[in-house]
Write a structure and sequence with these properties.
two-stranded parallel sheet
């Protein structure tokens, strides 16, 4: 994968992530345990071979899981620095999205903060490079949320 520049898009499955486990049977629980065990291996190999790694989740249709997205980003700091995790979820993902050609819903510059670029911006109350846990609680820590040039939240005006 590294030699051919192939991307890895995976997500951290950790032992503590037991949402919905009560609905699983014994076989499904055993399979989940295998996935959790393999998570450590996949990220260790991604680091070792310097794979281009995207931050991915399977939360598209779950409001509850979408609200935990920041926590999943924090989970990455088991293998990456806070800066690496944030870059992965922003500019690295933008680079991958840019490869989708005509399917790219955001034609233009992505993953950068500069004039003419398409950007969603967050103003965080604190420094996530020093305290990555800030992104796990957006209701409390995101003071400004801007998407596509439109401000959706601004608690600074309060």
């Amino acid at each position: 994968m590294a030699e051919k520049g192939i991307w890895l898009s995976t997500q951290p499955f950790l032992a503590g992530g037991n949402a919905g486990v009560e609905q699983l049977g014994a076989q499904e629980i055993a399979k989940k345990q295998q996935v959790v065990a393999g998570t450590e291996t996949v990220y260790a190999l991604a680091r070792k071979y310097k794979l281009k790694t995207a931050f991915g989740t399977d939360i598209l249709f779950s409001k509850a899981e979408a609200e935990r997205q920041g926590s999943r980003l924090v989970d990455l700091t088991r293998w990456y620095t806070p800066a690496e995790a944030l870059v992965m979820a922003t500019s690295t993902n933008a680079e991958l999205l840019g490869l989708s050609g005509l399917r790219n819903p955001y034609p233009g510059m992505l993953g950068v903060v500069e004039e003419g670029a398409l950007a969603d911006l967050l103003l965080v109350d604190g420094n996530p490079l020093e305290a990555i846990d800030l992104v796990a609680d957006p209701a409390r820590n995101f003071k400004v949320i801007m998407k596509g040039g439109k401000v959706y939240r601004n608690t600074l005006a309060d």
